[in-house]
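About this split. The held-out portion is used to measure sequence recovery: a designer receives only the structure tokens and must propose an amino acid at every position. Recovery is the fraction of positions where the proposal matches the reference. Here is one held-out target exactly as it appears in the evaluation file.
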């Protein structure tokens, strides 16, 4: 007892170089032997406490000296410390410092890169750390235990071992969801889950662990930027495996997915976190989830939903990379929708999608319009989309702007004419299109275009408008279009018939 007290007093300093000298002199090995004798001979609890305290002080040495120490006594020492900690937890050792110092020693070794795998492989080492965090009454010991676990989690080669450790994932969940738990512990949980999610072989298993997804759902909402970044990064890692797409979109009725969306427009969130959230959304949208993402994150009185959120990034964000990624995600949503999924999504969300695309096209950014027109053309190919598109305020204005703009490219012209072609296939849309004089004048110009493809599209539009009484009268009022039809009637019988139809209303 006296010798241990003297050793504790001797080593009680913060000089790392002196601790290195003490290690080289064999102090750590000697203290280990004293602790071993005390434990195996059921010695006094105070002796064990003093030995652990002295050892912890000596191992305040450099990482190089800790590595040297581990190579000599590390495996045996950790095995011994797990016994000490278990006795602390079950009440055999009641000295507060014993659990703290024993756990701190394991944490010291867990921060040495070269021996992390060896530490994790030690029998009962991981389970003991979990028990410390879960069951120890002393907060500082719990902090040291969690610190050790998180330090080990930065070694990717033991990610599977950590995932398989009994109770660890449930412990992470408990800490994340406990409102009384400290912010530091929650940040470590977020970091630990992120580290595990970075390992490809762990992603599917973690995504199937409902409690881990619940924990991430909660951690994403944290104001602490580091915790939020770790949580969003973890979800992003899970989204890299296509097999997780459906789970991430649908977990808890879409709650997790909606929380990621909220990050995108949350105030004072760093651009790098917004980027990770957008990348997550991009990764989770595919043919299987195209309709689900709209259903689970709809526009509502309380939330802008997925479509409006992405649109606000495209039109309002100052970072070009974020704007273009948000637009790419919107286009991806359009490309994954087909008639069956559109029916499940519902009219409100589909109208919002078209309106958002129109808003982007009108945002005075020329680089957006070609992409938007491709998306609108894709949507117009679906019969159920044509009426809501024709009735969307501003859509025909955007189309007519394309016809009259010197900056619009030929591809945009083709896409705009294709959209009109699709819209007028539906009888209920024809009067709406025919009411727009700018559109009709542009169609008139294309009737005499040297571009055969554009001329053909214009003729098809005229043929459709000639089939409905409501649109016939409206077309007859546009002198430019009637003149162009009259000119065309000199070369084709079909145009002669069309002209006679419209002439009845002159």
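Reference sequence for scoring:
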């Amino acid at each position: 007892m006296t010798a241990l007290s003297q050793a504790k007093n001797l080593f009680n300093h913060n000089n790392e170089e002196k601790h290195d000298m003490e290690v080289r002199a064999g102090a750590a090995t000697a203290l280990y032997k004293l602790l071993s004798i005390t434990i195996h001979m059921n010695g006094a609890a105070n002796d064990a406490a003093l030995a652990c305290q002295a050892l912890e002080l000596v191992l305040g040495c450099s990482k190089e000296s800790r590595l040297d120490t581990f190579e000599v006594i590390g495996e045996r020492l950790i095995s011994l410390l797990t016994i000490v900690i278990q006795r602390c937890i079950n009440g055999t050792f009641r000295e507060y410092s014993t659990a703290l110092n024993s756990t701190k020693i394991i944490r010291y070794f867990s921060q040495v890169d070269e021996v992390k795998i060896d530490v994790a492989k030690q029998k009962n080492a991981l389970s003991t750390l979990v028990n410390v965090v879960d069951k120890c009454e002393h907060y500082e010991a719990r902090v040291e235990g969690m610190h050790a676990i998180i330090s080990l989690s930065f070694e990717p080669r033991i990610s599977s071992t950590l995932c398989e450790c009994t109770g660890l994932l449930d412990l992470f969940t408990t800490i994340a969801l406990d409102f009384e738990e400290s912010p530091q512990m929650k940040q470590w949980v977020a970091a630990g889950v992120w580290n595990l999610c970075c390992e490809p072989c762990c992603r599917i298993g973690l995504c199937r662990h409902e409690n881990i997804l619940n924990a991430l759902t909660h951690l994403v909402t944290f104001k602490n930027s580091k915790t939020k970044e770790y949580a969003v990064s973890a979800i992003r890692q899970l989204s890299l495996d296509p097999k997780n797409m459906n789970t991430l979109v649908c977990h808890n009725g879409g709650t997790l997915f909606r929380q990621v969306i909220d990050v995108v427009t949350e105030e004072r969130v760093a651009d790098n976190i917004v980027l990770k959230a957008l990348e997550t959304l991009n990764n989770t949208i595919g043919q299987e989830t195209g309709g689900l993402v709209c259903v689970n994150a709809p526009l509502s009185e309380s939330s802008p939903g997925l479509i409006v959120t992405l649109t606000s990034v495209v039109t309002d964000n100052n970072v070009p990379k974020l704007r273009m990624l948000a637009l790419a995600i919107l286009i991806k949503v359009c490309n994954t929708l087909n008639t069956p999924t559109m029916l499940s999504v519902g009219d409100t969300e589909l109208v919002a999608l078209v309106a958002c695309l129109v808003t982007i096209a009108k945002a005075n950014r020329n680089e957006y319009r070609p992409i938007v027109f491709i998306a609108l053309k894709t949507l117009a190919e679906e019969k159920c989309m044509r009426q809501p598109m024709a009735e969307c305020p501003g859509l025909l204005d955007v189309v007519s702007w394309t016809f009259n703009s010197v900056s619009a490219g030929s591809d945009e012209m083709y896409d705009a004419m294709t959209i009109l072609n699709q819209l007028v296939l539906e009888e209920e849309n024809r009067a709406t299109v025919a009411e727009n004089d700018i559109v009709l004048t542009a169609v008139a110009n294309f009737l005499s275009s040297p571009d055969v493809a554009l001329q053909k599209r214009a003729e098809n539009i005229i043929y459709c408008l000639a089939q409905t009484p409501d649109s016939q009268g409206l077309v007859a009022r546009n002198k430019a279009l009637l003149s162009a039809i009259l000119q065309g009637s000199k070369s084709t019988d079909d145009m002669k018939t069309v002209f006679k139809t419209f002439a009845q209303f002159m």
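Annotator remark: Residues 63-89 form the longest helix (27 residues).
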